[in-house]
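DUF2892 domain-containing protein
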Amino acid sequence: MTLDRTILAFAGFMVLLSVVLTVWVSPLFVWLTVFVGANLLQSAFTGFCPAAMIFRKLGIKPGCAF
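Predicted structure tokens:
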């Protein structure tokens, strides 16, 4: 799996996890969803993604976007 697909899978997982936590734990977990969405939006414009840097250090092979 390339870094691009890993980032998409991680972001999708985090959104689903935040929805589950919002429903079953606390409504304040909606802010995790907001954070993930804002991070995706800013990385689309700037190309900077902290998760991509971490996954790259873990040895995930680069893709086209990151």
